Each structure stands twice: as structure tokens, then as C-alpha cells.
Amino acid sequence: MNPLLAKLQPYPFERLKQLFSGVTPNPVIKPISLGIGEPKHATPAFIQEALKASVAKGLAAYPATAGEPALRQACAAWLQKRYRLTLDAATQVLPVNGSREALFALTQTVIDPNQAAATVVSPNPFYQIYEGAALLSGAQTHFVPSDPARNFANDWDSVPGEVWARTQLLFVCSPGNPTGAVMPLSEWAKLFALSDKHGFVIASDECYSEIYFRDEPPLGGLEAAQQLGRKDFKGLVAFTSLSKRSNGPGLRSGFVAGDADIIQAFLLYRTYHGSAMSPVVQAASMAAWADEAHVVDNRNLYRAKFAQVTPVLSAVLDVQLPDASFYLWAAVPPGWHGDDAAFAKSLYEAQGVTVLPGSYLAREFNGKNPGQGRIRMALVAETAECLEAAERIADFVRHHPNPAQA
Fold this sequence. Notes:
Layout: H1 12-20, E1 32-33, H2 45-58, H3 69-83, E2 93-96, H4 99-110, E3 119-124, H5 129-136, E4 140-147, E5 153-154, H6 161-166, E6 167-173, H7 185-198, E7 201-205, H8 221-227, E8 236-241, H9 242-245, E9 254-258, H10 260-273, H11 279-289, H12 293-314, E10 327-331, H13 340-351, E11 353-354, E12 356-357, E13 374-378, H14 383-399
Parallel strand pairs: 1-11, 3-4, 3-6, 6-7, 7-8
Antiparallel strand pairs: 2-9, 4-5, 8-9, 10-13, 12-13
């Protein structure tokens, strides 16, 4: 067996299952899960219809790994509409089977494990695919903590020069999971300068870009590059998906865009990896990327939901509306002394509400786990269910401010 598999840590939801093992929640109330970031809003009917309409003629031939030209053009057209960018659909855009698969595969394309101490730099907390992709590529990881005092901005200045010198790939996530923080142009300028100096690739995970609460949409990596005069997108690949934007996680559909040389190498890798998108999914994807009305409606649903739920939770927890994404990143009450796992377990037992311990989404680095003492709540269900969960959490906190009373 591949010895690198032994380096992988259990996925957060496996750890959560173990945490709740043997725990029986209150049987008189319906369990509610805020633990998994899986969209629960309905997939728009027109996307479903496009999928159905393509079945008769869409399954009789092998799909091309590069996708249909019409799909790549639809993705490029969306980039133009959303970010005012002009990309070559043939060389700078590539359909992928969801951002998760692509994040992993790009890492295998980019990393040269023959280079001494090849390193992947990642935010911390983070999406666990970043770590797994790095380790299975033969690289080592370096985690960069976020700073709660600066709206959870990543502390890039904490990375030593010798680490940047051996870095081959940097993951960024904006809007961030789990914090919801959006990177400003100044932060992008810093990372581009570091990429130019040390030659590493930036992988920009932007799958939450269309769920936001500010008046202005979040700045994207390609958009930042253009604003800074980097029109060839050197060393940059952005990832986006229909899962959150269009409530289509089961489609496993997204695309990557950016540096044409990297896209070309990535296409070669994917050709051997067998990662072509089904023709029926391509048809549904073209319909989804071409429509913005359903995205606006979806965003308004989240805005209305967060407007109701956030005040209930902020009355008892240190939590605030994020810049974007569908998560609330809350601190556990002081009486719990930062034990986010114990809080989540007791909450589940007393109120049947599942939240994800923040420490499960981070790694200890320099003696500290930056997710410790926080919980992630995914407000993905309908408003009434999320509001009921918030009221149960508030009731739990008021009656159990510390473990001794749980």
C-alpha cells in the first residue's frame, strides 16, 4: 500500500461520529444538523430539466476531458459577467468534477516530490482536502493561522522566508471556510509578490463566492490579478463550483481558470486520471452558468436566514455575521475553557443539535490549534429549521454555561 496513506488524519465528520458514539440525544425532539456544509436549498428546476433533456443523446459517447467547447465558453462568459475578465475558453478554462476533486488533482500536477522538502502552505483552519492532497503528493505542510482580531485574516507574515523558499503550492480560500473572511486586494498583492519571488503556484478556492452579505461581491483571485496588472494570471489557478452557487452538490461540477501553462499541464494529468465530466452534467452546467436569477434568489434566502438566526446566537455566543459563505464561526462560552468538542457533544446530547468542533478543522501549529474553542455552524437547511436550532443552542448556553452544569 502507498505508505503516504498512513499520514492522513481522520476526516472531521468521522471524528464527529466518534465523538457522538454512545450519546443518545433527547428523544422527544427532532435532531437538527448544522455540522455539514451541504446545501439544502432546492436545485433549480431548469437545471434539473437541462439534465433530463440531455440524457437521450448524452450517454452514447465518451466525453472529452477538456469538456465541450460550449461549456468552456459558458464558464468564460460567467467570468466576464461576474468579474469583468476576458479569458481564452480554450486554454485558460477547464471543467472539473467539483472543486474538491480538482483541488486534490491539481496538487498532484504541481508538486515535484523530488525537490528537497517540497512544501504546501495552507490556511489554518482549513478544508481538509488541502492537507490530504499535499501529503499524498509527497509534500510536507506548513499551516498559517488566522487572526480573530483581524477578522480572521491569515497571518502570512508568520511564514519564515526559508519556508516560502521551498513552497511549491499555496492554498487560499476566500471567502474562507470556516471563517467566512474575504481577502482584500492588499493581501493578494502580498501573495503575488511572494509567488513571483519564490515561484510557487497559488490555488484559489472560491466555491463560496456567490453567498455574501456585503453590498459588493467578494473579490476573486483572477479579478485581483487583473486589478494589479497581472493579465496573464501567472502562477494562479482559481476554483469555483455549482455546489453552493446553484445548490447542485450532486452534479459534482465546477471549473478552474487561470495560468494557461498550468491549465495545459492539468489537462494532461486529468486525461490519464480519467476525470472527464459526464455529457449530461455538462448540459446542466451550461444552463446553470448562463443564469444569474437563481443565484440572486439563493443569496437572498441566505441573507434572510442569517438576519434571523445571527441575532439569536450572538445574544449568547461570541459570533457575528461573516463577510460571506454559509457558516457561523462562533466561540464557545468562557466557562467551557475552549473545549469545543465537549461543548458540541453536550449540546448534541441535550438539544439534538449537531455543530462541528473548530479544532477538527485545524491543526496544532507552534503549540496552538487555532480552531480550538470555536464551533462551525452550517446554516444550510431551511430558515425555520436553522432558527429552531439557534433557539435550542441559546437555551443550552443559558442553562449550561460551563461543563459542570451540562
